[in-house]
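#struct-help
A.M.: can someone run this one for me? Single chain, 364 residues.
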Amino acid sequence: MRINNVQFLSNMANVLSLLFIPVFAASLGASYIEIGLIVGIYSATTLLSSFIFGRLADLHYLHTVILGGFGFATAAFFLQVFATDPSTLMLARALAGFSVGIHPGALIAYVHFQKQSLGKFISLGSLGWMAGFLLAGMIGVRMDLLFGLSALVYAFCFLQTFRLEDIEKPQLKVSYFSLNTLLKNSGTYFSLFLRHTGAVGVWAIFPLYLRELGAGDFWIGVIYAINPAVQFLIMRRLDPFENEKLIQAGYLLSVVGFISYVFASSYLYVIPGMFVVACSWSFLYVGSTRRVVELNPDKATAAGLINSMIGAAGVAGSVLGGVLSQFFGFRATMLGAAIFSISGFLLYKTLGRAADVIASSDDN
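D.P.: on it. Structure tokens below:
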């Protein structure tokens, strides 16, 4: 189905530019803190556009938002070719991040209204990440080629979405600037933010950590590809499981996975932890996304806010990873991720229960 092809290819395009950004930034003279800021600005603009266009998709046409998102992404990702120093790279990544936040909420709402499995649809994004990591690993740090290829794939997605049929969806009468959906589901959103802040802190410096452990470009790509490959296999099989159990298991497995990275003496010893972290994110992302989409009438906004939390965590996590690595070393960042994951679990247990009480009172 065309919508599935777009999900796979758009995620692959994103990852082609993403994997070696820390290494490329370092080659341009960026410090660890500047690397964190470069990664963070991408997430900050993703956060902004996810909220704006999630709400637009609920109030207007899904197809228009999807089409515009891929058109903008094509131009934004190509502009990365012209980055020649940390400042221009930061600007280029800001534009790329904004473009990436436009379409996901609308895509998930589109799939929901077509009554398809969200778990299976989301898993195709993970398959795209796997393909992107493997291809980027084979190409290596040839950033002009990676940036150009990303733009080309996004252009193909743009052409594919031209042929998507628009669908009928309920007409909502909600304020554009309403925060009700965010507040009603605060347990899900803010707990996810905490866990992902720790995770992004790790991913912001992970290619550099793997190099320190002896990995070359190809092995960095292979190790990164394990995570989405496992996600693809796991996410497709989560339909029978309750959202609540998936979410809680996701937080606890995250703690185990991030702690395991601390004890790796070789890049090969990182691999078991990648399997654990992949399972944890599969449970957490699918469970959280399904929960908010099923419980809220503004489907694209609810799904877009998941992406906004990921973007917000990208900002905080990138800075966290850069600062911890600069002053305390890479392993301190892994421990920080474990602490943030257990904090997310505790926050979810607290706020999630309170949100359920509010939701049940609203229903009555």
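A.M.: thanks! The radius of gyration is 19 Å.
D.P.: also worth noting: The domain at 2-163+180-363 is CATH 1.20.1250.20 (Growth Hormone; Chain: A;).
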